[in-house]
Specification:
The structure holds two protein chains of two kinds.
Chain A lengths: L2 H7 L14 E2 L6 H10 L4 H16 L8 H5 L10 E2 L13 H9 L2 H8 L2 E6 L2 E7 L1 H5 L3 E4 H7 L1 H7 L10 H9 L4 E5 L9 E6 L6 E2 L2 E6 L4 E9 L7 E3 L2 E6 L4 E8 L5 E11 L4 E8 L4 E4 L2 E4 L5 E10 L4 E10 L5 E10 L4 E10 L7 E10 L5 E10 L5 E10 L2 H8 L5 H17 L4 H18 L2
Parallel strand pairs in A: 3-7, 6-9, 7-10, 8-11, 9-12, 10-13, 11-14, 12-14, 13-15, 14-16, 14-17, 15-18, 16-19, 17-19, 18-20, 19-21, 20-22, 21-23, 22-24
Antiparallel strand pairs in A: 1-2, 3-4, 5-6
Chain B lengths: L5 E10 L2 E11 L4 E5 L6 H9 L4 E10 L2 E2 L5 H6 L2 E4 L6 E5 H13 L5 H14 L10 E2 L5 H15 L3 E5 L7 H12 L6 E6 L3 H5 L4 E6 L2 E6 L1 H10 L10
Parallel strand pairs in B: 3-10, 3-11, 6-9, 9-10
Antiparallel strand pairs in B: 1-2, 1-4, 4-5, 7-8, 11-12
Helix pairs in contact in B: 5-6
The chains are: A alpha/beta, B alpha/beta.
């Protein structure tokens, strides 16, 4: 990492990179041919190839969003991106079979270790495809499918065809169109009726190459009365040129099912993170997004839940941390389509050293949705006067019976609070770290313990960088 | 060298350019308990804040030495690590930070190393027993939604764990019911006999439970009279009128 890059990102711990490993690397730039080549390389069924091509044309024609951070969005050079890079011949079930360089990376990230201790399954994606994948035998025996998305399409085309592109059609936005055109990797999960997956399953996404585009596609289906907790982590090396991460995640929770999807996004500050995440909750089902945005240059991401069946519930807890040169434009969307549906939204953001955080929320109650309840709480904490925080809540309420609460606050760290903590022996940076960890606590307590302590450490390191 | 554990000489201090301290002299030796009494606005809390290093106060004249060292050369956290402690009149809430975590981290910061888990648990239990505190305290957020009495008990709990050599207690007795007052007094009395203690208070009732060696009266930014415990009793009975400088 150059000094310049280090200055730009502070103490980003995952900024190391390994020599690039490529068995197949496409030339930079995007065309219909690139899209067809990706599909051909993966021997996909024709319907998928055609869907990709349609999505590609939609992407080309669709204008860039005219909201969010327009100037950064318009500075993306789509011709400078590598759209496909295969770094390993196959997806291994044993870490010893993963190419040495790549295995070392995941070792440094602590993935095999975590897998042994507390995970029900792991997918590790490196550049465009999964290099490692495994699931505990007991889950497999219960009929739980947990595969990388490419294998999912190969082995269970009927399920994929039924749900793919239904929760988030490619026409949803420019980046969902791009993802649908060039997607590669991601997770495919199906949990059979009544099966409860007790241990979380994890996917880890790593970008290693320069100017890489990572477009994983995830589809999780929890059948009636089942439940699963999926955890996602992401990092990348720090380069002076930009990389693009544009994922699409579709969740389907059938009647009475529960899906929790937890993310800690810690991309290096040269990554554009433009992600579409949405879940559908059928009758009495629950979809929960626990979404942490710590890294990246620009994130635009608004995890959404469509409450389609009566009595369905949405829970969206998100935190954003915007440091120097970062813009976290994040939020949530909930659509109450059915009666007696409920939602709970908590958003917390911290800005420091000129960082910018934006909360953008949409809460919609359709006319037929009788007796809905929703609570939205947004708290922003500013660590200095150079930073910026904006809130754009939108509510569309079509049914007067809805019981809605909305609270928003913007605060600064008080000098007296710092003095109190420093009088207990904490340096100014440690004091800020404590206050920040406390501010994010409603989020961290929702995470598996291992993630929570990792996140707290990460924030403490960020605070070290915040002081003079 | 000459001088006590805490040496304040000719101290003047201002906040937002208003002079609050106008020449304070005070020496506290190791093992001594001193009390400062005085009316609201006399500068008692300011003196404690200045000694601890609150950034809003500026020392314009005079000096503060602790253990022979010029305190103005130390950052707030360095003062804490060298054995100085301030029990706040109005302790601040730190939402989301559990009392247990906060205590462990503070002890680690002041001692310079993380305490062993088992030993720390025992130490904590013993200190909480002295103060009559329930273990459920530990999972609550620091001072968040605490009653006045709970806040003061937590201050004293911190003092017992941090084992300061010089403790400044700013109106730790105010707003306490008799049970809480007794618990707090017991906490102060269980501090090491070698420690110096400065009690800032309005009332004699704490001083009946924690008997001071020296009582000072502060008026208008200066200590104008010092004496033994009987001085506190006289103030309780007669008020401050008799000490006021005669005005023409």
């Amino acid at each position: 990492m150059s000094d310049e890059a280090r200055d730009a990102v502070g103490e980003y711990r995952y900024g190391f990179h390994d020599p690039e490993v490529a068995t197949i690397r496409f030339d930079k730039g995007l065309s219909e041919q690139v899209v067809r080549d990706i599909s051909a390389l993966k021997n996909e069924p024709e319907w998928m190839t055609e869907l990709r091509v349609k999505a590609y044309h939609h992407f080309v024609e669709r204008p860039m969003p005219d909201w969010g951070n327009e100037s950064l969005l318009n500075s993306i050079d789509f011709e400078a991106v590598t759209y496909f890079l295969r770094s390993s011949e196959g997806t291994e079930r044993d870490w010893d079979d993963v190419p040495e360089d790549i295995k070392r990376t995941f070792d440094r990230l602590g993935i095999p270790d975590a897998e042994q201790k507390w995970l029900g399954g792991v997918t590790a994606q490196y550049e465009s495809e999964a290099v490692y994948h495994s699931i505990r035998e007991d889950l497999e025996a219960q009929g739980v499918l947990f595969l990388d998305m490419d294998s999912g399409l190969r082995e269970h085309p009927e399920i994929v065809k039924r749900f793919f592109n239904t929760v988030i059609p490619y026409t949803d936005n420019k980046f969902s169109a791009l993802n649908t055109a060039v997607w590669s990797g991601g997770s495919f999960i199906y949990v059979p009726k009544g099966v409860h997956v007790e241990m979380p399953v994890q996917a880890y996404f790593r970008i290693n190459a320069k100017n890489m585009g990572q477009f994983e596609r995830t589809l999780i289906i929890a059948d009636e009365g089942s439940s699963i907790h999926y955890v996602e982590g992401c990092t990348a090396p720090t380069y002076s040129t930009d990389s693009l991460h544009s994922a699409v995640v579709e969740l389907v929770a059938m009647d009475g099912a529960k899906i929790r999807y937890s993310t800690i996004q810690n991309w290096s500050s040269n990554v554009y993170n433009l992600v579409t995440k949405r879940g559908v909750a059928h009758a009495n089902a629950t979809v929960e997004w626990v979404d942490g945005n710590i890294g990246s240059k620009l994130t635009m991401k608004y995890p959404a839940v469509i409450l389609k069946g009566e009595g369905a519930h949405a829970e969206i807890i998100s935190v954003a941390y915007a440091g120097e040169g970062q813009h976290q434009d994040a939020g949530s969307k909930v659509h109450h389509l059915a009666p007696r549906t409920t939602s709970n939204i908590l958003s917390k953001s911290i800005s420091k050293n000129g960082g910018r955080s934006t909360y953008r929320g949409m809460l919609q109650v359709r006319p037929k949705a009788e007796g809905c309840r929703s609570k939205v709480v947004c708290d922003a904490l500013m660590l200095d006067a150079d930073s910026r925080s904006d809130t754009y809540p939108t509510m569309e309420v079509g049914n007067a019976s809805a019981d809605l609460e909305h609270e928003a606050s913007v605060s600064k760290i008080a000098g007296d609070q710092l003095f109190y903590l420093m009088s207990r022996g904490h340096t100014e940076a440690e004091a800020m770290g404590l206050i920040v960890n406390g501010f994010f606590e409603p989020f961290t307590r929702e995470l598996p313990m291992e993630y929570a302590s990792e996140l707290n450490k990460l924030l403490e390191i960020e605070m070290e960088g915040a002081i003079g | 060298m000459a001088g006590g554990l805490l040496d304040v000489k000719g101290l003047h201090a201002t906040v937002e350019e208003t002079e609050i301290l106008r020449g304070v002299d005070l020496t506290i030796n190791a093992g001594e308990v001193h009390a400062i009494m005085g009316l609201n606005g006399a500068g008692k809390s300011t003196l404690a804040s200045v000694i601890m290093g609150h950034p809003d106060y500026e020392i314009t004249e005079g000096s503060v030495h602790y253990d022979g060292q010029d305190l103005t050369e130390l950052e707030v956290h360095e003062r804490a690590r060298s054995g100085l402690f301030l029990s706040f009149q109005y302790p601040h809430a730190i939402p989301g930070v559990q009392v247990g975590t906060f205590l462990r981290k503070s002890v680690a910061a002041v001692r310079g190393e993380a305490p062993k888990a088992r030993a720390f648990r025992q130490e904590l239990q013993a200190a909480m027993d002295v103060l009559g505190m329930d273990r459920s305290f530990l999972s609550r957020y620091v001072n968040d939604g605490f009653s006045g009495g709970e806040k003061k008990r937590l201050e004293i709990l911190q003092m017992l764990l941090l084992q300061p050599r010089m403790a400044l207690l700013d109106e730790t007795d105010s707003g306490l019911d008799i049970d809480a007052l007794k618990a707090v007094a017991q906490g102060i009395n269980s501090l090491s006999k070698d420690s110096g203690v400065l009690l800032i208070t309005h009332y004699n009732r704490l001083l009946e439970l924690v008997v001071p060696d020296v009582v000072h009266v502060m008026i208008d930014g200066r200590i104008i009279q010092s004496g033994g415990p009987e001085l506190a009793q006289r103030l309780e009975a007669d008020g401050y009128e008799w000490l006021m400088p005669a005005t023409a």
